[in-house]
Amino acid sequence: MKYFCYLLLLVPILSFSQTGALDLKDGKIYWQKIYKTDLSKEEIRAIIKSNATLNPLFENFSGISNPARIKCKEEDLPNYMANPFQFFALVEFKNNRYRVTISDIKIIPRTLKIDDYSNNIQNNTPRDLEDYQLKNGAFRTFRSYASNARICLMNYFNDLFDFKLDSADLDW
């Protein structure tokens, strides 16, 4: 019976191993997922080049993205999710698979700062996602909007990096 209980505890851990969840490593948030593909490196390179957010990754399959905005179905989202963000992405290839690693996710706030002379100054210094999502080195769990933001980001990254040819591009 004891082994059966251990097995029940192990199944959820194993089932989420390659789902593309936001994880923590050394106090930094990252996202990683492995995809299977029949596309060549050059076909994926062409898809990346045509995507405005991923275009900086075109040469080396790594780099800092262009700022992007997320459109999410989640209703209860924190205000910072309305701001554009950027991230470092690395795409690695091996045997009809590719692994995407997202790190250094930064939110670019769109707030105005007023100086001593009542002039409006744009203060859009990027802030780490960790500033919004972590408390004492762990993910915030007490509010639903924090977890909704993580779900929204995970879905966005999954959609962004699930490279497939459009049905119009397929030869028949």
CATH topology: Alpha-D-Glucose-1,6-Bisphosphate, Chain A, domain 4
Mean pLDDT reading: 77
Q: How many distinct folded domains?
A: 1
Largest sheet: 6 strands, antiparallel
Question: What spatial form do the alpha-carbon principal axes imply?
Answer: globular
Share of helix among residues? 25-40%
Architecture, according to CATH? 2-Layer Sandwich
* Distance between the first and last residues' Cα: 56 Å
The tally of beta strands, per DSSP, is 10
Radius of gyration from the CA trace?
19 Å
Description of the structure:
This is DUF4468 domain-containing protein. Keywords: Signal. It comes from Zunongwangia atlantica 22II14-10F7. The protein has 172 residues and is of the alpha+beta class. It has a single domain, classed as Alpha-D-Glucose-1,6-Bisphosphate, Chain A, domain 4 (2-Layer Sandwich), CATH 3.30.530. Helices cover 27% and strands 29% of the residues. The chain has 4 helices and 10 strands. Strands 1, 2, 3, 4, 5 and 8 form a 6-stranded antiparallel β-sheet that branches. The N and C termini lie far apart (56 Å). 13% of the residues are buried. The N terminus and C terminus are likely disordered.
Gist?
This protein is 27% helix and 29% strand. Residues 3-18 and 167-172 have low confidence and may be disordered.
Task: Give the helix/strand layout.
Elements (H helix, E strand, L loop, with lengths): L1 H14 L6 E4 L2 E9 L4 H10 L11 E3 L20 E9 L3 E11 L3 E4 L5 E4 L3 E2 H5 E2 L2 E2 L4 H18 L11
Antiparallel strand pairs: 1-2, 2-5, 3-4, 4-5, 5-8, 6-7, 9-10
